[in-house]
Amino acid sequence: MNGLRMDELSAEVEVLESKLSKTADLTTKIALSLKKLSASAQNVEQAVKPIYNKTQSLTVLSGNIDEAISAIDRVRQPTDTVSKEEGTIRQGPSKTGLTEYLASLRRINEALSSLKKSNLRSSQKAVNQMTGLLKAGSLQLEDLFRQALAEDSKSVEPLHYITKELPFPTFQPQKINMLAVLNDFLSSTLAASAGIQSNAPQVYAEVRGPYITNSLASLALATVNTTRRTSAAPYDKGSNGISVYTNALEAIFEAEHENICHLFPTTEWSQVYIATTAMPMGVFKKTLADLNVFVKQNMATDCFLAFDVIENVQPASVRLKTKTGEQKEFAEALKPLRSTAQSSFSYFLEDIKKTGQGLIALPLDNTVAEMTVNVMSRLRRMADYPNAISSLLVSLGEGNWNRPYTASAAIPPSFDVGADGALLLSNFCLDAIDQLIHELEQKARIMIKKNSTVAVFMVNNVHFIESNIRTSDLRKIMSNQAQAKVEKWRKDAVKMYMEQWKECAAFLMDVTYTKQQAGGKLNLNSKEKEGVKEKFKNFNTVFEELIQKHKSYTFPDKEVRTMLSKEIGFIGPLYGRFYDKYKDLMRDKYVKYDRHQLDTMLAQL
Question: Which family does it belong to (predicted)?
């Protein structure tokens, strides 16, 4: 059994060895095949490697070609914009609509920026075409800007706004938005990319300047026409159209500045404002120049027109400077008229002197001379323009109004900016009154001669001067010192008049010393009695003559007669003392009036 088992195992071993031998043969054959395969692989690698390398090069080339095609597409895309957008630009915003038109310009603008960055010579033609389209678009937008402005730039009636105290019209919000968009596009978008200079500020001035000028044309004409008067009467404040003209000019300039601030950047406000107001400001300057010529030709009556112009224009200039930054336009316009106005002070004083020297007659009743009335009327008219005249006198300087008159007074190169204009005006008025009184008295002494009558004439005139000061704005203008000096001149005239009355009163001056008898009665010798008789006689004669003369004088103002009567009243107490002392020693033929009678006569003066 064991032997059988061993045989089986031997047989299996033999089988396994046989298979192992076959496996070894097979392994040897596989090893030979692998060796042959390895040799073949090397041959393949040597054959494929050049092909692989070539394939890699072709891949890179393919990528470069793709990128080149993409770049070409990018270049072609902006150039295609010309053909796409040209139709829209040529049609204009009115047909395509503003929104689409601006969008088209933006696309061209972006395409142009891209081409400029590519810096390709081949794109220069397209760059030129796009720049041309942008310029064409810019011109059409400027035309639209002009048309939009013109729609709201029809001249208006200024009196409607001035009389009703309404502001001049400005652009509506919708119009402001449209104009602002156009201006912004022209001045920033197109200017930045295409280098196109915006003409919007110039267009604005070209449209709005004539609008303001035409709106104010009637007022400018009226201002000149109202200078033409048939009478030679002095100018009355406010009778010229300059006040309305100036107010309208200020209001419409202010409204225009508001428009400009809404449409333009801050840096352009001043430039656009000056350009826009240049035309109406030129007309205003011409109007003031015409007024200046008229004032020079009629200095005596119309220097007040110059003051009225300054009184109106100067404050308006200050207000506009605060609101708009206006610097010198109004000052330049006023300069000739200010020079003429300054010369009027010298003219006034010289005119007083010439008028006084040319007098050939004085009032027969010794009342107020026409010259006095005229001078005080002119001074009262000056009081209507304290601000303008004070400003002029500060520029002229203290006392320089006494210089000889010339058609145009030169303004000193420097003056005391801290000078008190009100005091200078007071001093000028006082100098004018001083010159007037001097001329009147000088002429009266030559033509009237009698001191008493000269005194009556001077009292009437100086009181008229003083009354004019007291009852007009001259009272506010002239200082206390100046009014005190006028009062002294009046007292000097009264003193002159009272000289004859003091001569009369001298007869009542008793220097006779007498002895008294029992009972207190005087005891006069014959010589002393004759002396007292002579005093009574002389007093009566002179007193009656003075009373008659005083009653014959004309005093237009009752206040003057009352004032003089009060002054003359000093004789009453003197006469009463003299009468009480000697009444019992004199006969009635010498003592014509008792105390009561004389006081009654004095009270009736």
Answer: Belongs to the EXO70 family.
pTM: 0.76
The amino acid sitting at 575 is Y
C-alpha–C-alpha distance, residues 206 and 138, integer Å: 17
pLDDT score at 328:
82
Angle at 182 between CA 177 and CA 188, to 5 degrees: 115
Q: Which residues make beta-bridge pairs with 522?
A: 516
In degrees to the nearest 10, what's the CA dihedral of 447, 453, 458, 463? -150
Q: Place 232 in a pLDDT band, splitting at 50, 70 and 90.
A: confident
Residue from 216, 98, 95, 101 nearest 156 by CA: 216
DSSP SS3 for 523:
strand
What is the DSSP code (8-state) at residue 522? E
Residue 172 CA to residue 258 CA, distance in Å, equals 12
Is residue 136 a contact partner of residue 89, using CB atoms and an 8 Å limit? yes
pLDDT digits (tens, 9 = 90+) for 506-533: 999 876 545 554 445 667 778 888 888 8
User: CA 185 from chain center: how many Å?
Assistant: 35
CB–CB of 411/342 below 8 Å? yes
Please tell me whether residue 399 adopts helix, strand or coil conformation: coil
Stated as kind and residue range, the H or E segment containing 515 is strand 515-516
Contact 253, 401 (CB under 8 A): no
Q: Which fold has domain 359-503?
A: Tetracycline Repressor; domain 2 (1.10.357)
pLDDT band at 122 (very low <50, low <70, confident <90, very high): low
How far apart CA 208 and CA 212 sit, in angstroms, is 6
Measured distance CA(176)–CA(50) in Å, rounded = 75
- What's the angle, vertex CA 525, arms to CA 522 and CA 531, rounded to 5? 90
What gap in Å lies between CA 278 and CA 361, rounded to an integer? 55
Task: Say which CATH superfamily domain 508-512+522-604 falls into.
Answer: Exocyst complex component Exo70 (1.20.1280.170)
Task: Give the 3-state secondary structure of 264-320.
Answer: CCHHHHHHHHHHHHHHHHHHHHHHHHHHHHHHHHCHHHHHHHHHHHHHHHHHHHHHH
Lowest mean pLDDT among 68-77, 360-369, 527-536: 68-77
3-state helix, strand, coil in the chain (%, to 5): 80, 0, 20
Q: CB within 8 A of 180, min separation 6: which ones?
A: 262, 263
Q: Please say if the pLDDT value at position 412 is more than 60.
A: no
From the number of C-beta atoms within 10 Å of its C-beta (0-12, 13-18, 19+), residue 124 rates as: exposed
* Residues in contact with 410: Cβ distance below 8 Å, sequence separation at least 6, in sequence order: 339
CB atoms within 10 A of CB 482: 22
Domain residue ranges in the chain: 359-503, 508-512+522-604
Residue 323 to residue 258: CA distance in whole angstroms:
9
Length of the chain, in residues: 605
- Beta strands at 515-516 and 522-523: parallel, antiparallel or unpaired: antiparallel
- The token duo for 601 is 């006569």
Side-chain half-sphere CA neighbours of 28 within 13 A = 5
